[in-house]
Amino acid sequence: MKKNSKKLRTLVALAIVAVVAVGFVTNVGIGTMSAPGIWDISILCPLGALGTMLASKMMVPRAVISLIVMVLLIVLFARAFCGWICPVPLVQKLRGLFAKKQPVERGDAADPAAAPLTKVEIDALGVSCSKGSKDGGGCASCASKRGAAPDARHFVLGGALASTFVFGFPVFCLVCPIGLTFATILLVINLFSHGDVTWSLIVVPALLIAEVLLFKKWCHKLCPLSAFMSLIAKANKTFVPTIDDAKCLETAKGGACGACGRVCEEGIDPRHPQLSQAAWSECTKCRACVDACPANAITMPLLPRRTPSTAEPVAVPTNAEKIDAENARPVP
To answer: Of 136, 190, 170, whose CA–CA distance to 51 is shortest?
Structure first.
């Protein structure tokens, strides 16, 4: 059976959007991704919780509880919200409807194990952060990784929180693509059910299109929620892609593969993290690397574990070492 987590992620996100839409139609009051809830229980998104307290300049119990709950969820699942729940990737798929599909080239990549690693590749993979630190210049590759140091998203996050404090209301919530997505759905529902025609019906979708469709790198370059989650996700230790060296084509057969690194949309290379474009805190738990591995060598266990293939070998003493040890024993 072919694994297809990408289709499953799309179905999960569509299901959530559908549930929220049904809530709008039936007036059940389950909220949206920005403020989900049921009956008397509801929580806010972390930016909404922070914004509520900064705008009111006081500790709000509901906001504090929401923030604690969200932080715990991020520590447990890292940025899984971005990979499985966020509606923005669904809207971004609209851009693909108008894009010309490029033909997939087939070649030696179909059999990765047939291509041995070259000396250049081996030397490149041997570069470690410790070497850069010993040279006194630090590791340039680690410093340039997205998530390893503050980037544009973190400045947007700081600006969003600062503007909320200054103006007394959550400014970013007005242009948040998550909120705009559900606002557009609500406006369309009101249009067909009540005939409501307002300027919002034009402005809201226009803002959403401008942010998500025109800014192709919104999630990687601008999203403050992504920045907030990546900061908290540095403490994440669960559901981390783990490679079994006994199955991996590179370690078991000495072949050149790299399929897991190429398929990651965040730029993380599970096989060679030191060469990744992004830090592990950017992982969205999308399982794309698991699906792409031709040897089924990648799993995502709840907690990291050491497999026999990755455990350090046990040193077995040679006969000469045994004789030396016997001679070194004190005579009684």
So the answer is: 170
Q: Is this model's pTM higher than 0.85 or not?
A: no
- 79 within 8 A of 285, measured Cβ to Cβ: yes
**In this structure, what are the phi and psi dihedrals at residue 146, rounded to the nearest 5 degrees?**
-70, 130
Per-residue pLDDT of the chain (332 residues; tens, 9 = 90+): 457 899 999 999 999 999 999 999 998 888 888 888 887 778 889 999 999 999 999 999 999 999 999 999 999 999 999 999 999 998 888 776 655 565 544 444 444 443 445 555 555 555 544 444 443 444 545 557 888 888 999 999 999 999 999 999 988 988 899 999 999 999 999 998 888 888 888 999 999 988 887 788 888 999 999 999 999 999 999 999 999 999 999 999 888 899 999 999 999 999 998 889 999 999 999 999 999 999 999 999 998 765 444 333 334 344 555 455 555 555 54
Distance (Å, whole) CA 181 – CA 13: 12
DSSP 46-115: HHHHHHHHHHHTS--HHHHHHHHHHHHHHHHHTTHHHHHT-SHHHHHHHHHHSSPPPPPP-SGGGSGGGS
Q: Are 108 and 115 in contact (CB under 8 A)?
A: yes
182: how many CB neighbours lie within 10 A of its CB?
21
Distance between CA atoms of residues 133 and 306, nearest Å:
27
